[in-house]
């Protein structure tokens, strides 16, 4: 009997997706049969890009990877994992502050769905300092974010001015 597909979920607002996100996605995609990149509706945040644009930018940025699907999600990530048949959630950690927050979330997620493990990955050192918040701020102030985002995201940031 063949073993079931190992599916993982990597969620975020991706406003916008950065090279740090892409680094984590690229490595996580090699660990699972399928990786679902879940783009959050993000009712709680004022995003620079609307959901449809964020989905388009994530898809455009991830074209090189097979086995990666991009879907919108709303609600609890553990409910989304159940719907997708996922066995794991992937989270990127840049620093100790991220770890403190993500460890608390992982513990709560385990309470909600003990069948789903949380896997933490560190982005490669050259992209570890990149965050969507900093990218948005630098771009808004006219700074160069060329080494922080993919070409499609760079075009979108420049066109929004």
**Beta-strand residue percentage:** 15-25%
* Percentage of residues assigned to helices: 40-55%
Could you describe the largest sheet, including whether it forms a barrel? 5 strands, parallel
Query: Please, what is the average pLDDT?
Result: 94
- Termini separation: 55 Å
Shape: globular
Q: Major sheet: order of its strands?
A: 3-2-1-4-5
Describe the structure.
The protein is built from 6 helices and 5 strands, in the order βαβαβαβαβαα. The model has no long low-confidence stretch (mean pLDDT 94). The relative contact order is 0.21. The N and C termini lie far apart (55 Å). Helix 2 packs antiparallel against helix 6. Strands 3-2-1-4-5 form a 5-stranded parallel sheet. The protein is of the alpha/beta class.
Write the layout of secondary structure elements.
Blueprint lengths: L6 E6 L6 H11 L4 E7 L10 H11 L6 E6 L3 H8 L3 E5 L3 H17 L4 E5 L10 H9 L10 H10 L1
Parallel strand pairs: 1-2, 1-4, 2-3, 4-5
Helix pairs in contact: 2-6
Question: What descriptors fit this protein?
Answer:
161 residues, alpha/beta, five-stranded parallel sheet, 6 helices, 41% helix
